[in-house]
Amino acid sequence: MDYEEIQNRLKEIIKMTPKAIPDSEMAKIHKKIENNCPKSKPFFDEMIKCMPGGTQHQMVIKQPFAVTMKKSLGARMWDVDDNEYIDYLMSAGACILGHCYPPLKEEIIKIYHDQDPNLYWNSEWEIKAIKEIKKHVPSIERLQYFQSGTEADMAAIRIARVFTGKDKIIKFGGAYHGWSDQLTYDIHIPFSGNMESDGIPRGCYKDTVSLPPSDLKALEDNLKKWSEKRSGVAAVIVEPLGPESGAIPNPPGFNEAIRELCDEFGVLLIFDEVVTGFRLDLGGAQKVFGVKPDLTVFGKILTHGFPSAGAVGGREDIINLITGDVEAGGKHAFVGGTIRGNPLSVASTYWTIKLIERTNAINKAAKATDNLVKKLNDLFERDDRPYFAHNHKSILHFETYSPLSMDIRMPENIEKAVFRKKCVDEIAVVLLSQGIITKYGNRGFCCLSHSTEDNDKFIKAFENVLKIIPK
Predict the structure, then answer these.
(1) How far is C-alpha 199 from the chain's CA centre?
(2) Percent of the chain predicted with pLDDT > 90
(3) Which are the catalytic amino acids?
């Protein structure tokens, strides 16, 4: 589905008056989960006494309580009550080979016999891993590991500031670049500002400039504006597919235009490839779009979910600013972390890339996603709904209420966006009750292990969702 059709379909959904799943139906769904998961409930009751909200991760479904998992393999997970689930969340996209992929697991176990994560001296696996990355991603001349995508994004903007001597970082509304103070602004929903988190001094945002999604005119205007001021712009950071892995898609030519503007104004371009790196292509989204960023941020898929899972790579003259081996008075971007780049993390990178190559996982996962998208769109058409699905290789989006498309600059839309988000969350709960796990009820990822039979079960579950959503 091309950009224009996606935009037109989103407008159609936004025009409709949404109707939520009735409370009486949601009560039945909650009861079904309670009956199916009797062991999970006491676990959750204990969890909530030990940690805020009862879960470590924001993507876990907590209605009526968080299910406790005990096993995963391929595209499947099993809870403590032995219920089986087909997982389309896939560790937020990190698992393209599938959970506990045996060949990867076996290689890491071999290494663990001799080396563990607290060995933070150099290891041969660092060389092997980085050579593999450089082979596939031409923009990477040097690379440094971090412990998460959030840390890697933090490092990237610090490096950019040191290299350029400028302060401002430009991002686009709705894009998520981790939860550091400076970047927890305008995330998830465009124009939301600092709504996502308290506890961040407003001064942290003074050098963060957030622009409307895909607005090249606003970008050019801001680059002109700040180039005339001493603070200046150090970098533009962007998700190459668009905010939230393409939930708010970038138009054709967008990344190329940003590259040209950054070159014109002497600004660094940072690609956040935490999701897209090694999922769209082993060369990342930058290979798909033919655009060479100055810095690239990688995240969890880099190590197939093994911690520590983050890295920043790019031009040698830029990246070398973090070595610390500088003369007195020279430029230096300090970074740290005892277990970043540990043997298990870098070895998992090497073997993940090798196994993706060996299995053709990217294309096979994309083919499974193509199949699911077609089946979803056929279902929506049969049921006479304005809903639609689209994908970028194995990254799946299915739009029903489209809360991210609500312009909350209009005060009356804030409440509407919150309501639409509630409706989407309830879809996730209904799917969960039928053994299907998704990301927030409107997104997902396929892996090497997903089959057409798995997709058929997804469609059957969604048929049941549509039965209880009023037209």
Answers:
(1) 24
(2) 87
(3) 176, 272, 300
